[in-house]
Amino acid sequence: MASRNFYIQLIFRVLVISLTALAFAFGVVKLWYFTMVFSFFFLITQVYFLIAFINSTNRKIAYFFDAIRNEDFTLRFPEKVAIKSFKELNQSLNRVNGLIQEVHLQLQIREQYYQEILKQASIGIMTFNEKGHILFSNPTLEKLLNYTPLNHIKQLAQVDEKLYQVFKSFRPFERKLFQLTNEREQIQLALKSTPLTLDGKSLILVVVQDIHEELDEKETESWVRLIRVLTHEIMNTITPIASISDSIIKYYRKNNKIVPLQDLDESQIKNTLKGLEVIKEQGGNLMDFVQSYRSLLNVPEPNKTIVSGKGLLEKIDVLMSARLEEGQTDFKLICDPEDLEFFIDEKQITQVLINLVKNALQSVNESDEGSVKMIAGMDNNGIKFIEIKDNGPGIPLDLIDEIFVPFFTTKNEGTGIGLSLSKQVMQLHGGSLKVRSIPNQETVFRLAFS
């Protein structure tokens, strides 16, 4: 409505100016000086009022947008004016101003709500730009680092120089662990970065979490599982020894008196010899068990050299060829790229791969279409890896967290330290050993080298 009245007034004023101009031209032609002078001044007056009319409207709109830009919602245009079009225009501007003010208040409330959530979060949160300026850090982060206020990542050097280097070299989607030591305690921090774009500017969002309690829980859980397995293995070995020893003692002692030699028959002596042989065998098994435990605790530091990936896989192929039954198991090697190289202790990694391939071959041993693949390559993040895949029965979901526990085994033979020893070797290499399994479809052990 205001726009329509504005156009009507504008058209009316233009028509008046046009008619005045015609009257002025007519006065010039007829030499009517009074008409000419009167129309001339009237024309100037009309042009002046037209410009003032347009400028008045433009100034109102300009003031309106300036106020909006400066978040000043106190600006009100008078609605009690004589000109109806101005009155309707002012009412429209005031109405729009009220709506924008309401939206702005809602956004502020929502922003305060999210800010409060971030402040109360139990994990540290920080955002910083490419120049290292920190745009936001919540109180949890400042408490973890024992430093406030945080304005630039260079301030982290005052907390720990290595921590500053971690943040300085952070790339999108990276995950890192950092042990922060201060005068109060040692804190194990897990850091994860995520890229953001705000107003066309690239930012890095870093989430920092104290995982000390989680590590303590995992450590306790690992000890419980280890003790459970150790207890099981030791009891399995000692129980027959105790039982046989008790039976033998009964041959030679009755009523707390030693049985005379002449009262012993041949069968008792034979049973005694058999029992002693079993005790000796069980004792030997217990000694082997203790020796395997010692080997698990004394893994030497890796002596790393540059090793050809293709040559390493071919070496495993030769070593495992004797275990392959003709035509029963399909064993494939893939190295992509072919010039892939690893910086590893060749002897240790060879032993790890032999153990994993041996397990894979055993898992598909009874399958008519058994397949085992050993793949060496590099992922999109530049991480070199070796994977051993098989299509055997797989690992049940309830056991997948147990297989790396020392001495845990589902086989009738073996000590159960192969996988735990392999994982320890990979940790000493600065890498990792992980597994994923879909029963009766695919099981993959992945060695990742940092």
Automatic annotation (TrEMBL):
Q: Which Pfam families match?
A: HATPase_c, PAS_9
The main enzyme category here is transferase
List the EC numbers from the record. 2.7.13.3
Keyword annotations:
ATP-binding, Kinase, Membrane, Nucleotide-binding, Transferase, Transmembrane, Transmembrane helix, Two-component regulatory system
Indicate the transmembrane segments per the record: 7-26, 32-54
Ranges where the Histidine kinase domain occurs: 229-450
What InterPro entries does the entry give? HATPase_C_sf (IPR036890), HATPase_dom (IPR003594), His_kinase_dom (IPR005467), PAS (IPR000014), PAS-like_dom_sf (IPR035965), Sig_transdc_His_kin-like_C (IPR004358)
PAS domain location is: 110-149
What reaction does this catalyse? Answer: ATP + protein L-histidine = ADP + protein N-phospho-L-histidine
Q: Does the keyword tRNA processing apply?
A: no
Query: Which GO-annotated molecular functions does the record name?
Result: ATP binding; protein histidine kinase activity
Gene3D superfamilies for this protein: Histidine kinase-like ATPase, C-terminal domain (3.30.565.10), PAS domain (3.30.450.20)
Checking SUPFAM superfamilies in the record gives: ATPase domain of HSP90 chaperone/DNA topoisomerase II/histidine kinase, PYP-like sensor domain (PAS domain)
UniProt GO BP: phosphorelay signal transduction system
The name on file for this protein is histidine kinase
Recorded source organism is Flagellimonas hymeniacidonis
